[in-house]
Amino acid sequence: MIYRLQSLYISLVILINGLFTFVFPLWIDNYKKTLFVWQGFKSQHNLVVSMAVCFFLVVVIAVISLFLFKKRKSQFMLNRLNLIINLYLLGVLLFYLLNLSGEIYISKKGIAAFFPILNIFLLAMANKAIKKDEALVKSVDRLR
After folding, report:
1. Which residue from 66, 50, 60 is spatially nearest to 2, judged by alpha carbons?
2. pLDDT of 59-105, one tens digit each?
3. Are 96 and 47 in contact (CB under 8 A)?
4. What's the whole-model pTM score?
5. What is the pLDDT of residue 1?
6. Labelling 24: which of 33, 46, 73, 108 has CA 20 to 30 A away?
7. β partners of residue 34
8. Could you give the maximum distance between any two Cα atoms of the chain, in Å?
9. DSSP string, the chain
């Protein structure tokens, strides 16, 4: 059923990565150039392109996971895959944000760099709710 608690968490992941990454920049470099996630597809750097692909993959996997509410084990595994992608994304973002040049001007980090941390938390909470549902179904099956 789509009205469960894990569906709310997964919907928040979709909202955060699907909508907010187009609104909030990842960073603003020292030349006052802002970089949004969707601009990462046009970049010359492989890590920036992989970062944009990962943001896109997180949304696609979360949408698939949202509609697999009848198959809790598949939903759980897709959320784990999504967690791994978010951990990679967090690592790449930290690498870039720590290596931004700020010699004369100070570069600004965008709030979108915080999104993978929030996604990891939401996906962990969704997996916890899925485990709770699975335990409830198993306990009902024992009674039959």
Report:
1. 66
2. 999 999 988 888 888 898 999 999 999 999 989 888 877 776 655 55
3. yes
4. 0.83
5. 55
6. 46
7. 28
8. 71
9. -TTSHHHHHHHHHHHIIIIIHHHS-SEE-TTS-EE-GGGGGG-S-HHHHHHHHHHHHHHHHHHHHHT-TT-HHHHHHHHHHHHHHHHHHHHHHHHHHHS---SSSPPEE-GGGGHHHHHHHHHHHHHHHHHHHHHHHHHHHHH-
